[in-house]
Amino acid sequence: MGELVNRIWSRPRGEWTRVLRNELPSLADEVVENLRHRIPGFAELLEDSERDKVRWGVEQALLTALGHRKAGEDGAGEPGAASGEEALAEVPPERARRDLFEALIGEVAVSERTLVELSRAARWPLPETVQAIALPTPGEAPQLAAVLGDTLIGAVGDELCLLIPDPDADPGPTPDTGTAAAQEGEKDPEREPTPAEPGTRAALETALRGRTAAVGHVVPLNDASSSVRWARRLLTLAPARSGPEARVLFVDDHLSMLLLLQDESLVRALAARWLKPLVGLTPRQSERLQMTLLAWLEGGGAPEAAKALKVHPQTVRYRLRQIEKLFGPGLRDPRIRFELEMALRGRRLMAQVDRIRRHASRVSRRTRTGAPPGVRPLGIAREARVNGL
């Protein structure tokens, strides 16, 4: 018995059902044999009973001892109708939901049969696609689950995550956009322009309003861990906000940023490799030329860069001549220009992330010492708005 428990607990929770189903019949036979040899009179009792019925009774007792069946519950009445698999369906739905969540996002692959069994026990039909939501405050998950419908909830690290089934399914008639716009007021100036989204996005924004949350991208069911991973990653990159300043972030709005920042060490190496010609300049000179070069690469010309930087075009042309002296004719190579733009964007993003982390660290220290939080520095808000965070 102890060996079975150890084998079950050594596996991810999503595989407990499979291990128990495979091990239960042989364990029941072993128990019956031990009882027959060690308890006087048990052998005679077996002669008067069908061995299958005795083994079935032992299986039910083992399931009760392992917490997969409540004590006192009646079985199906016949051994053939109450196999270990059917008894496992009696796992409480809430527990089965937690196990199903862990099976879907775990690193160990789980068989389709196991997922189907967990799905049946959890009363949560397996969808074609899912979308994750990461929350920094676990206490809000039950209320959100009630609003969003039939979701799976589970803890991942320090965050609580929800899995929404089939988020791209047809939501039915959508409300009149003119009325919605009148209710919402003017558009948030910090928000990045995005194409029209299905009704699900509007529903999520309404349900999550006033909370800090990150919504992952829609993925096939077997890739649920990816949606969870990137939602959690986006949550760590977001500035800490509460109350009216809290915002919902969508992975779909920040794909290029997440792609660039998926390995911060590589981002720093990329910047060091391609921006090496700026090393000999003062910090102010280097920052000015980096801003000019990035504006030029993004805009495609001096007038566009001047407009973005709010300086005179002649100033941009002067700086571009300095940049050409430093970087040489490579600026005309499309591949090198692409690498330079990635390096400059990556360095800018890393600077923003570093500022956000320092700010979060200061807030954390104030919280521990009991000092008032104060006003968030203007520089943090300004940097965060660059990428819509």
TrEMBL record:
- Gene3D superfamilies per UniProt: PucR C-terminal helix-turn-helix domain
Pfam families annotated for this entry?
Answer: HTH_30
Basic and acidic residues: which segments have biased composition?
A: 184-194
Q: Residue ranges of the PucR C-terminal helix-turn-helix domain?
A: 291-345
Recorded hits in InterPro entries, A to Z, give: CdaR-like_regulators, PucR_C-HTH_dom, PucR_C-HTH_sf
Question: Please, which domain of life does this record's source organism belong to?
Answer: Bacteria
Q: Where is this region: Disordered?
A: 164-200
According to UniProt, the name of this protein is PucR C-terminal helix-turn-helix domain-containing protein
Species assigned in the record: Streptomyces rapamycinicus (strain ATCC 29253 / DSM 41530 / NRRL 5491 / AYB-994)
- Phylogenetic classification of the source organism: Bacteria, Bacillati, Actinomycetota, Actinomycetes, Kitasatosporales
